[in-house]
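[Solved] Which block belongs to which protein?

Original post:
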Amino acid sequence: MWAIDLSPAPGYAAPGDPDPNTGQSIEDIRDQLDGLYREAEVATEAYNAANEKATEQEKRLTTLRKDLTRAEKRVKDLHALAGAAARTQYRGGDLAATGIQLLLGDHPESALDEASQARQAMRGLVNVSETQKTARQELSEQTEAATKELRKLKSSRADKAAAKQKIEKKIATAERIEAGLEEEQTRRLAQLERERAKEAEARWTASGGSSGGSAGKGRGKAQGPGGGTQVSGAAGKAVDFAMAQIGKPYVWGAVGPSSYDCSGLTSAAWAAAGHPIPRTSQAQWGGLTRVSLSSARPGDLIIYYNDATHVGMYIGGGQIVHAPRPGRSITTAPAASMPVLGVVRPGV
C-alpha cells in the first residue's frame, strides 16, 4: 500500500538566514535533527521486533524442554513396566497388577477398565513403547532446532542493539546541536515547528482525513467522524489511557508505566482497554484491521512512513497523541505532521 505523503514538501517556506558560524539555516538544522531522530526510531523498532522474536522463541524452547522431559520419563516408565510385565507373565501372575492402566492414564482411549483386558494391553506394550520413543526423538530434534534458532535470534537482537547504540551517539550529537542554539535560533526553530504544525492540519483536512470529534483527557467517550457517532467502550478507554500519559518521556523500548516509545504507548493503551495488540508499529500495521483515512476515529492507530516505523493514536479533530522521539515527551500533534502510511483499527 502506497504511503499518503502528507509531509511538508521541500522548500515550502523561505529558508532562514544562515548561521554565520555554521553556514546552516534554521531549516537545515531542523532537517538534520529530524533525520537523526528518524534514524533512531527506525533502529528502535528494529530492535523491538528482534527482541520480541527472541523472547517468543525463549518461551517456545522452555515449553519444548518441558515436553521432552515428560516424554523421557514416559519412555523410562514404559521400559520399567515392560520388564515387570514380562516377569509377571513368566511367573503366570495376574497382569492387571502391573500398573498398565495407571501408566496409560494420559490416553483414556487406551486405558483398561477390565482386568481381563490386561493381557491384551501387554501384547501392545512394546508398540506403545516404540511410539513413545519416536515421539521423544521428534521432541529432541525440535528442541535442538529451536535452540539453534534462538541463538540466531539472540545474535540478531545483539546486532540491532549495537545499531541502536550507534544511533544513540548520533542523538547525543543532535542534542548538543539543539543545546548550542542561540536564543534567537531557538525561537525561530520553535516558530518553524508551529508553522509546520498548521500546514499539517490543513493537509489533513485537504487529504480527506476524518475530523473525528475530540477526545479530551479523562473522557470515556469520543466523537466519531464528523462529530457524530460516539466511540466508547474499548476505544474510549484506550484514548483515555494514552492521553493520561501526556508529559511522560520517550524512552527506547519502553512500555510504561513511567516512559514509553511510540508503539509502546499504543500497545499499552489498548492492553489497558482489554484488547492486547502487537508490540511494534510494523506488527500493528501488518496485524490489525486497516481502515480508510476518511473513516479514522478516536482510538484508531495512524501508521507513519513507508516502513511503518512510527505510530500515533488518533484522538479526533485531526490530532494524534504519540511518543515523538528521544528527548521529547508524550504529546499531541497534527495527524498529518508525518507521512501517513495508513490507519488500523484494533478491537475489530
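(Second protein starts here: sequence line, then its C-alpha cells.)
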Amino acid sequence: MQRVDVVIPCYNYAHFLQECVESVLSQAGVDVRVLILDDCSPDNTPEVGMALASRDKRVTYRRHAVNKRHIATYNEGIDWAGGDLFLLLSADDYLLPGALARASELMSNQPHVGFTFGNALIAEPDGIITKRVDPLGGNNMPTVQVMSGPQFMRLSGANNLVPTPTAVVRTALQKQVGGYHKELPHTGDMEMWLRLASHAEVGYINDDQAVYRRHSSNMSLQYYGQSILPDLRQRKQAFDILFRQGADSLRKDEKLRRFLARDLGKEALRLAGMAFNNFDVTTAVAIQRFALEVSPEVRNSLPWIKLVCKQTIGPKYWYALNSLGRRVAG
C-alpha cells in the first residue's frame, strides 16, 4: 500500500476537527499518517487534537506558539511529509470513503501523473450537503482521465479548477517544486496546481472525493466589492510567477501565456459587470482598466462591448431595463 501523508491545518475549527481526522483514518487501501497543525487556535483545538493523537498512533498533533497564518503552516506540512503521496486538508473539510484509494490507484498506474483531483460536495456549516462541484462538468466523463500539463492549464484558465480537499500530490514532486508563495495568500492554491502541472501530467477522478464546507465569508460566494481587484492582481501575479519559475518548456510557451492573460481579462470583465450591477461604478471602471492592461485583446470581446453598453445606459436605467426583460421572459 502507498503511504499518504495528510496535513490538517487548523485554526479555530475544533468543532470540525474530529470529523475531518476520522474521515482520513477510515480510508481503506492506503497507509495514512496525519499531522494536525494547530495555528495557535483560541478555541479548544488543543484538547481535541491531543485526544485524537492519544487514541491513534497514526496521528501527530503540533501547536504553534504564535499564529503563523496559512501559507507558513502549509509549507511546514510540506516539509514534514515523507510518504508516497501528500494531501493538505483543511480541518473544516473531510474526505469521502475510498477517496485516497482511488487517487493512489490512479497514480500507481500512471507514474507520470503528478497530482490528481476530483469532484467535491459542498456542505453548509451545519453539515447539510447543498451542491456538487464537478470541475470537468458532466456525468458522461470517463471515470478516470489523464491530461497533459498544458491541457490542464487551458481548462483551468484564470480560475482555480481544483477543489482543494480533493488534490492528492506525489510527494517527491511537491518537494521538487517547493512550497506555497507567501505573496499569494488568496491564489496560492491555483498557482500551485499550475506549477505542478508544468512538471507533470494531471489526473482527474470523476467521483465524489471530499466535502468542502461553505462559510458565509467565502469570497467566491458573494459580491465582494473592493476585494475583487486585489484578487485579480494576485491571479496575474500567480501567472507571472508560473512563467518565471515553472518548467523550462512552459517559460517558452508564449501561446499559452497569451491564452491565460486573455482568459484573465475576460474574467475581470465578468467581475466588472458584477460590480456595475451592484451600483459600484468606480470599482467596475478600475477592473475594466485592469482587464485592458492584462490583455488588450479584450477590447474586441463581447463582454467588453456589453459592459460599455451598460456604462452608456447607466446603472439605474440598466437595472430597470434588465428587470423589465426578466419580467417579459417570465
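Accepted answer:
You had them paired correctly. Confirming on the second one: Residues 1 and 179 are 26 Å apart (CA to CA).
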